């Protein structure tokens, strides 16, 4: 005899089975992140990651990239890296305030992964390239590009270092208070908040 169940009946039985097994409803059988999903709080950012294959994949990638960075940081103050990572997790968890939580979480992962890959030289790079600038005699900016997602470059000027991201195809890299606008063998560089742009040429 064929028995037909309504969609509502199937859903109720599925939820009952989940509850019986003691598995939180936000945990699914897809890709697992690097942490245990059975103990995360419902409605948390971790629950969002557990419920999304794409975010779970990014979390696993982050776990691997962070492990590689820790190996590189053995002689570079590893407590600093650990503290920065804790700060990043706190910032990621602030995505609950975003109108698009999933996009916010994804962006946080992609930017942090790219940052670690660039700062710890974990991916292929192009450079260093030296640009002489017109603001003062001997002034120069040294850049190294990295094949991250999104693309990044690390710029050095004197004792200062800036990580910049390329967010479009127009050759505009943006850091915290620095920009590097590339035009063939020349670049316009702004170094510091409110600073006057410098015209620089590749040497």
From TrEMBL:
Superkingdom, taxonomy of origin: Bacteria
Keywords assigned by UniProt, alphabetized: Signal
Name the UniProt record assigns to this protein: Lysozyme inhibitor LprI-like N-terminal domain-containing protein
A cellular component term, taken from the record's GO annotations: extracellular region
Signal peptide: 1-29
Pfam family, one: LprI
Residues annotated as domain Lysozyme inhibitor LprI-like N-terminal: 44-116
Residue stretches in coiled coil: none
């Amino acid at each position: 005899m064929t028995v037909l169940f309504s969609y509502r009946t199937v859903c109720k039985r599925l939820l009952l089975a989940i509850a019986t097994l003691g598995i939180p409803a936000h945990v699914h059988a897809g890709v697992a992140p690097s942490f245990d999903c059975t103990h995360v709080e419902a409605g948390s950012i971790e629950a969002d990651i557990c419920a999304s294959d794409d975010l779970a994949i990014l979390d696993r990638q982050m776990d691997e990239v962070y492990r590689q960075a820790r190996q590189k940081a053995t002689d570079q103050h590893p407590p600093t890296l650990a503290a920065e990572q804790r700060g990043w997790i706190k910032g990621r968890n602030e995505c609950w305030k975003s109108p698009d939580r999933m996009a916010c979480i994804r962006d946080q992962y992609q930017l942090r992964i790219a940052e670690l890959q660039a700062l710890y030289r974990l991916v292929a790079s192009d450079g260093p390239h030296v640009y002489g600038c017109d603001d003062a005699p001997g002034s120069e900016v040294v850049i190294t590009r990295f094949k991250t997602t999104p693309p990044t470059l690390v710029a050095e000027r004197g004792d200062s270092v800036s990580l910049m991201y390329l967010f479009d195809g127009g050759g505009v890299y943006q850091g915290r208070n620095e920009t590097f606008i590339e035009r063939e063998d020349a670049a316009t560089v702004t170094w510091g908040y409110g600073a006057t742009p410098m015209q620089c040429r590749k040497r």
